[in-house]
Amino acid sequence: MIEDNFRNILKQIPEGVELVVASKSRTVSEIEEVISCGAKIIGENYVKEAEEKFNAIGNRARWHLIGHLQKNKAKFAVKIFDMIETLDSMELASALDKECKKINKIMPVLIEVNSASEPQKAGVLPENVEGILKEVLKFSNLKPMGLMTMGPLLDEPEKIRPFFKKTRELFDKIKAIYGNSLEWKCLSMGMSDSFRIAIEEGANLVRVGTAIFGKRQ
Ligand SMILES: *Cc1c(COP(=O)(O)O)cnc(C)c1O
Question: Among 5, 6, 66, which is best to mutate for testing ligand 1, by the most ligand atoms less than 8 A from CB?
Fold first, then answer.
């Protein structure tokens, strides 16, 4: 079933868009199955859970952190992940940079945008993204490469489209400002219900879990 689902999703993803398999709560053997079908990037939400899976699977896939990261877990996160998609504060940037220096690693990061400006939600408000980016660029061990957004949780995926569009516009604006001085190329948007819309709006990383593995318990 995982294999059929995975191939079905891949068919719907055009060239130039990469699939991040969102695997929170899934077992090592489920993840191994999807890797054997050709999955290249595994997205995990929690450092501890990712650590256990990483110890079993290692570098057979690339690992993206797609959940909120607490500063005090930065030390463990930098060892496992190949990209942090959820950079959402200067405090976290500072902690990540410090831990990366210790292990001599340059960490690709995406700034998570709270694209609907929801009060309780993680992510940087759209109007603060350029300011944060400017500061993040001062950290020599972080490499900002683009934006990530969840968008609001709405009953219909089509209703998320304006927030994907808004994130894309911000992404393009920053690209225009920095030009070739910044390798600004990742736009991570869209999940099982919304990845097709996200791709139409310019996403080139989509994070899909349920449509591959089935419903989470
Ligand atoms: C769980 C999760 C996904 C995948 O969601 P599905 O609806 O299971 O496809 C994508 N992004 C983030 C940040 C997630 O936590």
Answer: 66
Question: Around Cβ 120, how many Cβ atoms within 10 Å?
Answer: 5
Task: Provide the β-strand partners of residue 110.
Answer: 146
In a 3-state reduction of DSSP, which class is residue 89?
coil
Reduce the DSSP state of residue 151 to 3 states and report it.
Answer: coil
Half-sphere exposure of 49 (CA within 13 A, CB side): 18
Half-sphere exposure of 15 (CA within 13 A, CB side): 0
A 10 A CB-CB count for 70 gives: 10
Among protein residues, the one whose CA lies closest to atom 13 of ligand 1: 66
Q: Is it true that domain 2-213 has CATH number 3.30.470.30?
A: no
Q: Is the CB of 5 under 6 A from ligand 1?
A: no
Q: Could you give the C-alpha distances from 157 to 58, 84, 140, 163, 195, in angstroms and in order?
A: 34, 25, 38, 11, 9
Question: Which pLDDT score is estimated for 119?
Answer: 95
> 90 C-alpha to center of ligand 1: Å?
24
pLDDT in tens, 103-114: 999 999 999 999
Ligand 1 pocket member 208 (CB < 6 A): yes
**Residue 79: closest CA among 60, 57, 96:** 96
Q: How far apart (Å, rounded) are the C-alpha atoms in residues 38 and 3?
A: 10
pTM above 0.85, yes or no: yes
**Residue 192 CB less than 6 A away from ligand 1:** yes
- What's the CA gap between 24 and 66, in Å, rounded? 10
